[in-house]
Amino acid sequence: MPECVSVSEFVQEVQEDWSSPTTSSFTSKMISCRNTVYLLEEALDSDRLVLQKMKKAAKAKYTSGQEHVSHLEQYINSMEKLSVNCHSNGETEVGSAFCRLADFSKELVSPMKNLVSARSMTSQRSKVRTAVLEKKGTKDLKKPFERAWRDYESRFKQVEKEKRELARQYGMVRSEVSGGEIAEELEKERRSFQLSMCEYLIKVNEIKTKRGVDLLQNLIKHYHSHNNFLQECVSTTQRLKQYMEELNGVLTTVKQRREEEKRQLCALRDQLRPVVHTEQDSLPKQVYSMHQLLGDKQYGTERTGFLYKKSDGLRKMWQKRKCSVHNCYLTIAHATPNKPPTRLNLLTCQVKPSVEDKKCFDLISHNRTYHFLAEDEAECVAWISVLSNSKQEALSVALDGGRRGGGGGESSVEDLTRAITDDIRRMPGNNSCCDCGAPDPGWLSTNLGILTCIECSGIHREMGVHVSRIQSLSLDSLGTSDLLLARNVGNSGFNEILEANLLSPSLKPSQHSHMAERKDFIMSKYQDIHFVRRSHSSAAAMRLGLQEATKSCDIYSLIHLYAQRTELSQPLHTHIQEKGETALHLAVLLADRTSLHILDFLAQNCSNVDMQTSAGNTALHYSCLHNKSDCVKLLLRARANPHIKNELGETALDVSRRLKHSQCEELLQQAQSNQFDHHVHVEYEWRLRHDDLYDSDDDFDDKVAMETEIGTFLVLFVYFHQPRGTSSRRVQALYDCQADHHDELSFSEGQVLVVLGQEDSDWWHGYIEDEPDQRGLFPSSFVQLLSD
């Protein structure tokens, strides 16, 4: 390590040199002085970097402290509002508790504000000290020092050369010149060097004082503030602890009172429910019926002729239209010859004769009711019979697994299956694999209702059919029953439950991940259920939740219960017909064309599909008792045992024969002879999104007129309700935008939008200039302002 000099040594050497330049040894110490300056500069550079980091940390502490105080104040404000609401609702005890806790929180916020203020002072002083090092550092003083050193060396060499030249003239040879000999001649340069060195050491002394002593004194003040903060918090928390002990007793009393009220209400509900359900079961369902109208077979399955159809527009006019029934499709011609006719798949419709007029009948699709009028009653009966027969024949073909002859067209069941599959692919999250995010997944888990890629589907198969039942959307011959859950669940909704506690999206494998990584994640997700948010409810609460989810047709609540290992086959709290009914029995009793997916999920995922009531009836018995053939299909598809007998010694087939429920009987006979097709078609309200709403010119004209009137009204409304003195901004779309929610606006690139207001800096509210009825929220980054 180079030799250095201390401040005291430097002062002593300079004083000796000042008193006696010729005898002083300062000249020999000048190299050490120079080394000292270099080492000090390196140390100060290191300190400068450390203090810069301290400054950033102090600033971050101050900012986070301010944000924390702001959040606490918002939290306190919310508690105070909640207290006011509770007092208004008559919940005095609860409201008082919220008010007291808000007061305690205020007492804790006050010392926090003082502490944040102390942080601010520390941060400011840290900035000053860092600025001293950065702007008034020693670099400017080092330059004069270096210049003085160079001047001294240059002058020393010049004098040394002159002395040697003089000695040579006198015939002498000098090897070196001592400092004492030339001390007087180099005194000016030496004094300049000493002055620069002295000023440099003075500045270093000041910096060390600010870096060390001053900084520590400020930190002492800061930690005094910390100490005061903690003492005030301890005092407040001691009083808070006493109040919490008192509050705990009050809340226990309130909770007991609420539980008693709930118990009384539940008892009253159980007393009223059987009567209400009995009355509901006795009433015929007008729209969604599990049983199809049977037509007169003599009229066949095909027909062509004219019917009067009532328009759904403003005028409600009867319009004569040419109609034809062929291959389970009803074709309705338009008045305009070059306009393609409307085709309705009868598998998604129901025929209903009119009660008021014997010449009228209705055809009910998932999104519209068509009203038809025939020439006379006999003509009406013929059309109703043909429509019913055509639909029944298509169902029979689907059950037999065959294909209809004639016409050369594809089966209507296949058309429907393809339409449902296309609709499933468009559901949220279904454009990527449920497990790894790979695009365009083509494999379906029929019992979970999710889509996966081919790699992840292989791991699903390894887990077994009791966990996931995999089918290909394109390679396997699927029936509509295979698509029930996929149409009602989807990847997004499923992952919101099964991945609710996934700490980070990075823990999820990607499409490029190795199979071992995929397998570990999928096993943890489906078998170990690691990422599900647990409710920590009691077994009784879980059982009650299972009953309520089945009644309300809440598929996501059922999935959440299933993911928490709830036993889906356990008897429910209450029953409708017989004691010991399970959720599967309840789903059969409540089943219609809108709730079959609930029955399907329970049947495929419960541990025992053959659970019996106190009278020995299984869910299959219930389906036959109530003539619900679609329920029979789903239960047989889930491997329900048709040979189980009830207390009367009857199997489900015996019940069907006794009650003359022919469709149920036929299905059970197929199952007993191993001819039942598990990819069966079911009657369900699919709610597909591609059907035409307006199939006649008059309907379309009425629609256009109505939209024009509404659009004119909206333009006038916007104009007259716009604040005076302001003008709406016009913007142009830079990109296509597809709405994700009902309150958002869809538009195409290049369209002009009118801005009515803004939710925040990122989302604006407005409408399309040419379509004022199209209004909603849209991202401001997708548009640019137009200069009017």
From TrEMBL:
Location, primary (coarse class): cytoplasm
Location within or outside the cell: Cytoplasm
GO cellular component terms, semicolon-separated: cytoplasm
UniProt GO MF annotations: GTPase activator activity; zinc ion binding
Record-annotated PH domain positions: 300-392
ANK repeats: 579-614, 615-647
Any Pfam family hit: SH3_1
Residue ranges of every copy of the SH3 domain listed in the record: 726-788
UniProt entry keywords in alphabetical sequence: ANK repeat, Cytoplasm, Metal-binding, Repeat, SH3 domain, Zinc, Zinc-finger
Keyword Metal-binding: yes
Arf-GAP domain boundaries: 418-539
Name the record gives this protein: Un-named sa1614
Species this protein is from: Lates calcarifer (Barramundi)
